[in-house]
Design brief:
The protein is mostly beta strands. The protein is 0% helix and 39% strand. The strands form 3 sheets. The chain has a 5-stranded antiparallel beta sheet, with no helix packed on it. Strands 1-2-3-4 form a 4-stranded antiparallel beta sheet, with no helix packed on it. It has a two-stranded antiparallel sheet with strand order 10-11. Strand 7 and strand 8 form a beta hairpin. The N and C termini lie far apart (47 Å). The model has no long low-confidence stretch (mean pLDDT 79).
Length: 174
């Protein structure tokens, strides 16, 4: 008998069919997006959203992981749960909304009912483009830093950040 507090994935059985797990990551395929949950090191997760059918360029910043934690996924009533030794990530079926908790049960990330990843087509500068949004609930003391290669202040809490992929001479998407 497993103790749910010490092993939140417990003996709940296999992952649902829309979830795959390998030795480095769990990939959860939702309605319009895939969410890739990877362990980079003990206590460190990487969450990567990839629109369905889109060619996604590889990242340039992190090249390897230092002793990643093993991942396990199981089915839940509302979707799936991904577990590592340090975290549990509950993922809603269809929407890929998430709630991440540490092993003590403290909520670290929560999309809530109106958050998560979304995309829609919008006209920007006369061109129709896909605009993706990621909305999360967070504690008022939570800080966000960086958000990519940009100038300006390091602390980004409360800011709107626009990311545009442009293929220019010398740079190509694989």
């Amino acid at each position: 008998v497993s103790d749910a507090a010490s092993d939140p994935c417990g003996d709940a059985g296999a992952a649902p069919g829309w979830v795959t797990v390998d030795d480095r990551a769990a990939v959860l395929r939702c309605d319009a997006v895939s969410l890739r949950v990877a362990s980079w090191a003990p206590g460190v997760l990487r969450l990567r959203y990839e629109p369905m059918g889109a060619a996604v360029a590889r990242g340039i910043a992190v090249v390897g992981a230092a002793s990643p934690e093993a991942l396990r996924a199981v089915a839940t009533a509302g979707g799936a749960r991904v577990c590592t030794a340090s975290h549990t990530i509950d993922v809603a079926a269809g929407t890929c909304r998430i709630a991440v908790r540490d092993r003590g049960g403290r909520v670290l990330v929560d999309d809530g009912d109106d958050g998560g990843w979304s995309a829609q087509r919008e006209t920007i500068d006369g061109l129709v483009r896909t605009v993706a949004r990621l909305r999360r609930r967070s504690d008022p003391s939570e800080q966000y830093y960086g958000v990519g290669e940009r100038t300006g202040p390091l602390a980004r809490r409360g800011t709107r950040n626009v990311f545009a992929e442009r293929v220019t001479g010398g740079y190509y998407v694989d």
